[in-house]
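Shipment paperwork, digital attachment
Item: protein structure file
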Amino acid sequence: MSRKSGRPFGSAGTDVVQGAASRWSTALLFTTSWVSGLVFAAYIVAFFGGVLLAGAGERWNESLPGLYDRASPMAIGAIGVHFVAGAVLLLLGPVQFIGSLRRSVPALHRWLGRLYVVSAALAGVGGLAFILAKGTVGGPVMDIGFGLYGALMVMCAGLAFVHARAGRVTQHRAWAIRLFALTVGSWLYRMEYGAWFLVAGGAGTGRGFTGWFDMVMAFFFYIPNLIVAEHVIRSHRSSQGALARIGSATLMVAASIFIAFVTWIFVNGAWGRRMISGLMEASL
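Attachment content:
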């Protein structure tokens, strides 16, 4: 036992190992998520942007039926804004959480933060405008789920900005974490659907996204993210026990493996093929 602390001599070394495991697992999840997000952003730009420039916007419906409708130009414009802003969010989000960058170049962090908040607000408003103009393919349940998602994004973006302007760093960081958890939702929506088809063969999915699983996913792609965000926020405010640290690290490593595997499946499947075809159409 240590005379000063009354703790076993080996406990300090154990704390160091647990702390390192927590940091490395967080960094692994951070890096894996960013790479996967970059791939998804490239897919959005290459496919959706490419076919639109080529005058073949109807090909958007290969990704989600009913997404592109020439009779609803407002809906097309709104979802286009949502796509562009979403790609910016996927590219910038992780950068804002790099501590060394925030400390060494605070002005860059502030300006990127402004761009991030504006993009989040535009993505949320664009999605809401699309729902109001055309409605979602899944009907009322998806309308409500996706509408709540857009409203939460706008709210979190506004509060993150307000607290930053007021110099309330702790509150700003909390709302920024919640905002980031929401912004990765559209990307996770695809990941989770892909995993479900691999594991359950698409059980519970129906034509027009009206199956029980489709209805669950109208909310599931962002509500668990917010729960995880709250866990991260609270873990920064209070020390975690050894079991909690080990559990968190294990969960983060498992999530990293899941994201990497499903991203690989998507790239080798629909994403890769559509990215190439979109770029080819735009170049013709």
